[in-house]
Amino acid sequence: MPIEKIHGCIGCENCVKACPTDVIRMDPESEQAYIAYQQDCQICHLCRLSCPVDAITLTPDKAMLPTTSWG
Amino acid sequence: MSNDKDDKIQEGVTRRDVLKAGAYTAAALAVPLVVNTGSRVEAALSEPVRRADLLIIGSGFAGTFAALEARKQGLSVLMVDKGVVGWSGMSPWASDSRPFDPTIYDRNEWQENMAMNTEYVNDRKWLDIFMDESLDIFHTLHEMGAHNTRPFERGTVVFRRELENAGVSIVERTMITSLLDDENGKICGAVGFTYDDSAEPSKAVVLRADAVIQCTGAGSYKSPGFPIWGQTFDGDALAFEAGAKIVGKEFNDTHPTFANAPAAAYEGWRWAQSVKGAYVMVGPPGKLEGGLTLNNALGVFQNGVNRQIGGGPGGEAPPKAGEVRPESPEIKANRKYLGKGYLSQPDLILDLGGPPEGATEDAGLGHRVGGATAGMGVHKSEGVFCSDYSCAADGVEGLYAAGDALGSMLCGSLYPGRGFSSYGSAIQGRIAARHAVEYVKNLASRPKINKQQIEEKLTQMWAPRNVEQGYSPEWITATLQNTMTPLHILYIKDPRRLDGALASIEFLRNHCVPKMIARDGHELRMAHEAKNMLLNAEMKLRSGLFRKESRGTHVREDYPARNDKEWHCWVTIQKDKEGMRLGKHMLPEEWKPSKNKSYRENYPREFPGEDAFLANNPDWLS
């Protein structure tokens, strides 16, 4: 699990701006950030570092895509 | 130029208009608007065409310093970024510096050390420029307040404010996919798309300018384990397709990561990201120490993986937690500079060399393993080639590059130690802007865009959204990683293995990329990134095959020795009808290693099998 959860988001969008790989998006209805493309998280921690309320949890582990013959 | 007719191509068009107009009447609006995703049909709108005198792609150190310089000289500037301006380009090492102070350092010592460490294919004139300008960058950053920030805050707090105050127009979360040129081949803009389609569909973005500076950084194959951010060699791909020469692809970065959690990028660099202030490397670059050498990979190649201690970037094991090591000769020698010149300034974080404090052996995540940055080249030594120090791309008019997007070869065949990258980018950003400003001011007439060309490029850009059955960018990326990352492809090279990998990469490029599918804006970005990474992979394999010697981070099992007669050169790549044309750019005779010293004195690092190879090939060095 790379970025694991966002809990207690205040909707400032800092994490969306900080993420270099477009993992986090804003939900237009709830106006909160959510993890949209977890697989592309590089565990760089920029989202966590820029979150003013420490709402983001990351872990060091990440599962890579298994190799298949086509996909 | 806001009244320019072309600016009105998309003005006033709303999504509702497009939906009402229906799918194919969109052609009347000059840019294709319809994206068909199988069962889903949605309209992808175009933003109004925007224009400025100068377009800068990327907003890290190079882009920021380029934009500020161009604004100072009176040009209007559009800055476009794949991420968000202020957040982009701020690596954990954004605090690192090694400014040259002529009152305390010896120019010749820097030149000689750098040449030996990077194996004599570094650009000595760029190092001169670095030595001329780096202290000014230091003072400029200090005045901006950058020395009171952590690395990523340099962008979010300082650079963003400076750019906004300077009146730079900003376009964000936009991936650029093609450059535009006029009927004479002069670069005059770029096209791309907004990938964040959470609130509204992706839109085409058309940006016009009289010149373009690429500050797009480097790239890697998105390998887990290194915070390379969103960099995927986008600048190389844009420039190559536009006809520019690319250089330096046979050399590699060698950062390691951890065996038990190889994707835990941050754990390896936690100390660097938390540094607050000006982190200054004291002393000249090392002759042999401090660089990102191949030592670790060569050790693994010869002896297998050392699962007990692993090794740092150059092969040395970082200290264990709490371990205090005896002071190295390098650190002892650098003590003499303390308190002198700019180093007497208070509040600097001074690093005398050796593994940085706070970097522990394994962070609890197992031994060190290689390949964290697979695909990344040497900072400042891969990218758009410029032969005259203007940062103008060889082969194309109106295109400039700076920072890691420019193959300035400042660092030759391996990164010689920390402190050159961010400052090198800042220096080159300013130089690129000065020359681009001069170019724009001297243009006899503004380059005219070709609407048909824009339509074609936008059609190509949206293509993966229109494929109904195809390969996913994720699968292509994973297959690319599996092909290129291993030790015996990227680091320890052999022509049969390089050819084998090339055949696989060519299949992906020729067969799979045209059938790549993107189901949303995120995947469209992934698709273009995969295409750019594959182009880079082919460049790396072809350059690796072309350079028939070993040097720095380029090692050939069949030619395990340096050959200054044939290969004291840079390898350039340019697009031609056959695909890629490779060439040699020979270097000045006076940059070659000393004739008064022995081969081994000039090249103290020994490649496996090198001495035996030289003994069996007596003509090699003659």
Strand order of the largest sheet of chain A: 1-4
Largest sheet of chain B: 5 strands, parallel
Kindly name the structural category of chain B: alpha/beta
Task: State the total count of DSSP E strands of chain B.
Answer: 22
H/E order of the elements of chain A? EHEEHE
**For the CA atoms, what is the radius of gyration of chain B?**
24 Å
Query: What is the beta-strand fraction of chain B?
Result: 5-15%
User: What's the total helix number of chain B?
Assistant: 18
Task: Explain this structure.
Chain A has helices spanning 14-18, 46-50; strands at 3-6, 24-27, 32-35, 56-58. Chain A has 71 residues and is α+β, with helices and mostly antiparallel strands. Chain A has a two-stranded antiparallel ribbon. A two-stranded antiparallel ribbon of chain A has the order 2-3. In chain A, strand 2 and strand 3 form a beta hairpin. The model of chain A has no long low-confidence stretch (mean pLDDT 93). With 622 residues, chain B is an alpha/beta fold. Chain B has a domain at 50-441: FAD/NAD(P)-binding domain. Chain B has 18 helices and 22 strands. In chain B, the strands form seven sheets. A five-stranded parallel sheet of chain B has the order 7-5-4-11-18, covered by helices on one side. Chain B has a four-stranded mixed sheet with strand order 3-10-9-8. In chain B, strand 1 and strand 2 form a beta hairpin. At the A-B interface, strand 2 and helix 2 of A face helix 7, helix 12 and helix 15 of B.
Q: What's the gist of this structure?
A:
Chain A has 2 helices and 4 strands, in the order βαββαβ. Chain A has helices at residues 14-18, 46-50; strands spanning 3-6, 24-27, 32-35, 56-58.
Topology:
The complex is a heterodimer of chains A (71) and B (622).
Chain A: E1 3-6, H1 14-18, E2 24-27, E3 32-35, H2 46-50, E4 56-58
Antiparallel strand pairs in A: 1-4, 2-3
Chain B: H1 15-21, E1 34-37, E2 40-43, E3 50-51, E4 54-57, H2 61-72, E5 77-80, E6 96-97, H3 107-117, H4 124-144, H5 151-165, E7 169-171, E8 174-181, E9 187-194, E10 204-208, E11 211-214, H6 234-241, E12 246-247, E13 257-258, H7 265-273, E14 278-281, H8 295-303, H9 329-334, E15 348-351, E16 368-369, E17 383-384, E18 399-401, H10 421-441, H11 451-466, H12 473-484, H13 487-490, E19 492-493, H14 495-512, H15 521-546, E20 555-556, H16 564-567, E21 569-576, E22 579-586, H17 599-602, H18 610-616
Parallel strand pairs in B: 3-10, 4-5, 4-11, 5-7, 6-14, 11-18, 14-15, 19-20
Antiparallel strand pairs in B: 1-2, 8-9, 9-10, 12-17, 12-21, 13-16, 21-22
Helix pairs in contact in B: 2-5, 2-10, 4-10, 12-14, 12-15, 14-15
